[in-house]
Design goal:
mainly beta; 4-stranded antiparallel sheet; HSP20-like_chaperone; A-crystallin/Hsp20_dom; Hsp20/alpha crystallin family protein; Small_HSP
Length: 132
């Protein structure tokens, strides 16, 4: 893989016209998406988000991920902050190749793993060649 293909992206704040009920920045979580024969897998970095604070919504073909961060250390006085703490929000349009009833999510160590199983028609299959 060429070096230019591996570039680190800065944390991106979500730009939206909608108003929030919380006064924290909202970031777009960085994701990796890969495909296996059976699934599409989405890994979303959402550091500081507890599993119980992840909300995943699937309406029609729109998959929405929200992560809410509970602020820590409010009793302390901040001397230096180089890391922006905030909530996370991202949406994906899910194609018809995904079996929406079987989507699974696991949150561990600040990484959300979404497993999106393919419908049988979208999975690769071998076709046997018959002889006459």
């Amino acid at each position: 893989m060429a070096e230019k293909d591996m570039q680190v992206r800065d944390k991106q704040e979500l730009q939206t016209q909608a108003e929030s009920t919380r006064s924290v920045p909202v970031y777009v979580p960085a994701v990796d998406i890969y495909e296996t024969e059976e699934n599409l897998v989405v890994l979303a970095d959402m550091p500081g988000v507890a599993p119980e604070n992840v909300d995943i919504d699937l309406t029609d073909d729109l998959l929405t991920i929200r992560g809410t961060v509970t602020p820590e250390g409010q009793a302390e006085r901040m001397l230096l902050s180089e890391y922006g703490v905030g909530d996370y929000y991202r949406q994906f349009t899910i194609g018809r190749i995904i079996d929406q009833s079987k989507i699974e999510a696991v949150m561990k160590d600040g990484v959300l793993k979404l497993t999106l199983p393919k419908v049988d028609a979208a999975k690769p299959r071998k076709i046997t060649v018959k002889t006459k």
